Amino acid sequence: MTNGEKYKKAFSVLQTSKGSLQEVENMAKLQKRTKMKTAAAVLAGCIILGGTGTAYAANVGGIQRTVQIWLHGDQTQATLDVSNDGTYTMEYYNEDGTLHQTGGGGVSIDADGTQRALTAEELMEEINSPDVEYKDDGSVWVYFRNQSIDITDKFDDNNVCFVKVTDGKETFYLTVKYRDGYTFSNDKYIEP
Fold first, then answer.
1. Closest-CA residue to 165 (of 132, 127, 120, 126)
2. Contact 145, 123 (CB under 8 A)
3. Residues 6 or more apart whose Cβ sits within 8 Å of residue 177
4. Which residues contact 176 (CB under 8 A, 6 or more apart)?
5. Mean pLDDT by 10 residues, the chain (192 residues)
6. Which pTM was predicted?
7. What one-character DSSP code corresponds to residue 135?
8. Rg (Cα) of the chain, in Å, rounded?
9. Are 69 and 75 in contact (CB under 8 A)?
10. Most buried one in 4, 9, 14, 149, CB count within 10 A?
């Protein structure tokens, strides 16, 4: 006779009550429900984590923020998306509701000659710096913070204009070469 047969013979004389049998069945059902609820909670957690992971992956390592910028003398709200490589894209709506997208970027060359991507703060400084615009009517305008300055008649015989702009906290010295770019400094005018 095997061990299994001996156990069957020994316990075959024992009878379980109906109450005990019902309790065992109820415990089995409760355990099954608990497992189902746990499985549902785990699945919901995976969906939530997967969704946030997907949203993060859309902007891997970049920085996206809503910023206030000055455009044509008016403060405007824009969405700035800065990548780790020092580039950015910016979206904003103008006064008639048209969406504008622009971008840029840059690098900084340190004193030892190493090159690195611009940080988000450095890019914001560049975005908020003075800007020169050539209008269709032939006029030339400088925009800085809340200022709009018409410099059309300020160009010399060499088509160069020197303009100082300040907002009380920061001063820029602009050198504008007509339709050939511009540069600025916080210290002095830069010769073209």
1. 132
2. no
3. 159, 160, 192
4. 132, 140, 142, 151, 155, 160, 161, 162, 163, 182
5. 66 59 63 59 55 44 72 81 83 85 84 85 82 92 90 93 90 92 88 81
6. 0.55
7. -
8. 35
9. yes
10. 149
Q: What six digits make up the tokens of 160? A: 């160069």
Pair of tokens at residue 87: 């580039």
- Give exposure, 113-123, as e/b (b: 16+ Cβ within 10 Å): eeeebbebebb
Q: Is 192 helix (H, G, I), strand (E, B) or coil?
A: coil
Q: How deeply is 18 buried, as exposed, middle or buried, from its count of CB atoms within 10 A (0-12, 13-18, 19+)?
A: exposed
Instruction: Tell me phi and psi for residue 155, to 5 degrees.
Output: -80, 140
Are the C-beta atoms of residues 145 and 181 closer than 8 Å to each other? no
